[in-house]
Design a protein that fits this description.
By secondary structure, the chain is an alpha/beta fold. Helix content is 25%, strand content 21%. The chain has two domains: 173 residues, NAD(P)-binding Rossmann-like Domain (Rossmann fold, 3-Layer(aba) Sandwich), CATH 3.40.50; 178 residues, Dihydrodipicolinate Reductase, domain 2, CATH 3.30.360.10. It contains twelve helices and 14 strands. The longest helix has 13 residues.
Length: 366
């Protein structure tokens, strides 16, 4: 790409916004032009706004440290400076829906980490390796919004990335009933141990809204585009029940899953399907795409957060402990990085695919 696309980050001071900042520091296709946040941060330099609450392992990148934060509500001012935006704003769902649509209506594509539009029928919710064809619904969304270039695309909940990819790799064996329990890192709540000290040595057996997302969002990912209705129709081939627990880990969502299949695959069949699984990002060699989307680990004590959460720079998924079950057919353990594969990294990869498919373009070239 000769000239990089200009990117705005909405909600740039929060944990996911910070992760966007670090991922875009040396990105070959994108450059951070605008950082935007709430009115209380507007007017400060970025480094001033995150002083005392920078949560990444590396320093604030020099290319954004002295950028002055704009008020995320200055929609026209921000849109005039960027080709598209990443959204990680912290607002109510109704406010998020409204502001993301407002940006889209300025002909500025929005790639969102937020959950507000995940069930808007004509908004694609995509894991690029699994359901890139859902981007087709963007054309119907543009008609509703009255735009030529502007649209919203979202990524799914971070926790489903630890088990949904395995089930996607096994679709040919017809899984139809799943129990999935997730053990979720505190960064999924936008916190670290300094800001949430009561999580040290603690487990909380409840995460608001998380179980419904875990049970329903995979079905939308496995759904199809209804070209007559102009919307995504969720799959009805599977039922999932879930429990979601917060555990004292900074990064990494672990899942235990029990699966029933209509067919009778062997362990060798299932492992080979995991290792062979790849998607369009791998075929296109997108900058953020892992070379190997899923790894299977043979050791009984893997995957482990300490050893495996950063597999493929945090963009890969680790599966292990695949074995037969006395009630269900098979059971396994999965692990994914919640702020990379599950949040900002997944959104960046989605944006790369949207660029490769010409949904996102430079405004100057239109």
């Amino acid at each position: 790409m000769e000239a990089k696309l200009k990117v705005g980050i909405l909600g740039a001071t929060g944990m996911v916004g910070q992760r966007f900042i670090t991922l875009l520091e040396n990105h070959p296709w994108f450059e951070t032009t605008v950082v935007a946040a709430s009115p209380r941060s507007a007017g400060k330099t970025y480094v001033q706004a995150v002083a005392g609450r920078w949560m990444m392992d590396t320093p604030v990148p020099a290319d954004v440290a002295d950028k002055v934060i704009l008020d995320v509500n200055e929609i026209d001012k921000i849109s005039n400076q960027v080709d598209f935006v990443f959204s990680a704003v912290s607002m109510s769902k109704d406010e998020i829906k409204a502001i993301e649509e407002a940006y889209a209506k300025t002909e500025t594509p929005v790639v969102s980490n937020n959950s507000a539009h995940r069930w808007t029928p004509d908004v694609p919710m995509v894991v690029p390796e699994i359901n890139p064809e859902h981007f087709e619904v963007i054309d119907f969304q543009k008609k509703r919004l009255g735009t030529k270039y502007g649209f919203i695309a979202v990524k799914p909940n971070c926790s489903i990335q630890s088990y949904a990819p395995a089930l996607s790799a096994w679709k040919k064996f017809e899984p139809y009933e799943v129990i999935a329990s997730t053990y979720q890192a505190i960064s999924g709540a936008g916190k670290n141990f300094d800001s949430w000290p009561e999580m040290q040595g603690n487990i909380i057996p409840y995460i608001a809204g998380e179980e419904e997302k875990s049970e329903k969002e995979p079905l939308r990912i496995w759904g199809h585009v209804d070209h007559e209705k102009g919307e995504i129709i969720p799959s009805d081939d599977m039922v999932i029940t879930s429990q979601c627990i917060r555990v004292p880990i900074l990064y990494g969502h672990t899942a235990t899953a029990f699966v029933k299949f209509r067919q009778t695959p062997s362990k060798e069949d299932l492992v080979q399907a995991l290792r062979d699984y790849k998607g369009l990002p791998q075929e296109l060699n997108l900058p953020s795409a892992p070379k190997n989307f899923i790894q299977y680990l043979e050791e009984d004590n893997r995957p482990q957060v300490a050893l495996d959460v950063n597999y493929e720079n945090g963009m890969g998924v680790s599966i292990g402990r695949l074995r037969t079950d006395s009630v269900y057919d098979w059971k396994f353990v999965g692990l994914s990085h919640n702020t990379l594969r599950g949040a900002a990294g997944g959104a960046v990869e989605s944006a790369e695919l949207l660029v490769a498919q010409n949904y996102i373009t430079k405004k100057a070239d239109r």
